[in-house]
Design brief:
The protein has two helices and no strands. It has helices at 10-40, 45-69.
């Protein structure tokens, strides 16, 4: 695990991780859907405000997830002294893949 990441054990930690990852995924889906809508409706101010709201929500959830469990993408890893992308379990490994 990279520096600053908290280690936990047991089903509760895996369940919490899965719940948070699900929230990140849902917010990301909404952003993608809104981006497609805005591609065809670029002057819809309600959609633009909704996009801005979900961008902030997604960023906050992503930061929370990454501070607890590690980077979700290679773009957000900390590579100050070594390549850390492969540290720690992947989201689909072990107890983190249990149904919530």
């Amino acid at each position: 695990m990279g520096m600053g990441m908290k280690m936990g054990t047991g089903k509760d930690m895996g369940r919490n991780r899965a719940v948070l990852l699900n929230k990140v995924s849902k917010a990301g889906f909404v952003l993608n859907d809104l981006a497609l809508f805005l591609d065809t409706h670029p002057t819809d101010l309600n959609a633009l405000r909704y996009y801005e709201f979900y961008q902030k929500k997604y960023d906050g959830l992503r930061r929370e997830y990454e501070s607890r469990y590690g980077a979700l993408t290679r773009k957000t890893i900390n590579n100050s002294d070594r390549w850390t992308w492969t540290d720690g379990p992947w989201p689909w490994e072990n107890e983190y893949n249990e149904e919530v």
